[in-house]
Amino acid sequence: MTGEPLTGPITVLHLIAPAHFGGAERVVLSLADAIDRSRFNVLIGSFVNARFPDNEFLGQVREKGISGTVFWLRRTLDIENIPRLVRFIRSEGVAIVHTHGYRSDIVGLIAARLSSRPVIATIHGFVPIDSRLRVYEQCDRFALRFFDLVLPVSDQIERGLCASGVRRERMTTIRNAIAPGGGDGPKRSASPLPLLKRDGDFLIGVVGRLSPEKNIPGFLEAARDLSARYGHLRFVVVGEGPEREALKGLTTRLGLDGKVRFTGFVEEMEEVYSLLDMLVISSSTEGVPLTVLEAMRHGVPVVSTGVGGIPEVIEDGVDGLIVESGDTGALCRAVETLVVDGNRYMAISRNAQKKVLRDFDRSSWARRIERCYLSMLNKREESSNG
Known about the structure:
There is one protein chain. By secondary structure, this protein is of the alpha/beta class. About 40% of the residues lie in helices and about 15% in strands. It has 2 domains: about 10-175 and about 360-385, Rossmann fold, CATH 3.40.50.2000; about 195-360, Rossmann fold, CATH 3.40.50. It has 13 helices and 12 strands. Helix 3 packs across helix 4, helix 7 packs across helix 11 and helix 10 crosses helix 12 (about 340-360). The radius of gyration is 21 Å and the shape is globular.
């Protein structure tokens, strides 16, 4: 396609390997909603484990009427999909390949180069929770050196990529954003969520995938200490993941049965935020979680560990509270501050809402990404003509 004039909307192919319906998946769907459809046509290519074909993300892609295709994975990094991906890029007239995650980055880079298409990556964060994933992360960091453009979601991620050899001039940090009204996630009608909270309860929650990097045990330990001092506190864990049964067992051992509820995966997140009085992020690593922005938009104060791009979103003591990762005592003290000090609670709530509406508007975010697409295509055209 290099040197060929583009007529009509520019086709962008997003590539992602959706193991679950998490932050990166929601960002892709949000961008598909917010992109200017008069100028861009969106396709989604999903790398899905063939053993687990029932995938929430695929259901949402179909529900939203977004065109695309599925590339079945028989192993973690299935390079046999590359020829099929190249054929798909050419047959669908894809002008730009936009990847999300290490599987998509590596395979997408090779396919884009074989197809003579520019390739761009959004880096949502790295989660090297075991030695195997650390190897893939290192491969991904190396591959990113050869992308036309890399979009880290935080300055912290950009600094890490610079240290890995990715050239700064090929990177543009674009933090996540959310729609001003309803949530970016899918919707479902009736649910048992109202049963989580009775009159007089103060509900504190964590929202996300139940996996090691989220450090849900730290949240549960804080819940034990806090509930011993404040009888009106209730706690909720919203999400699914491989640690769910272990966490439920820990809840029982900590004597928190009846105090902590596990909801599983919830599609209607608006209802969750309408019930929450506080959101806790106890993670050991993060990018810029959409849950933080969504809670702030709803005026739900956030107490978070200062990891990843979170300190770039929350100003400690002004529109949220930041604590040291792994310090359960500090987490308890921060939560307690907002439980007992109503004036401070309300000030943080108001400031958080104002910040999100001012600085994290989804429309402005989408226009920035569109400008990146156009700039990348213009540079390639100038290079081919030169």
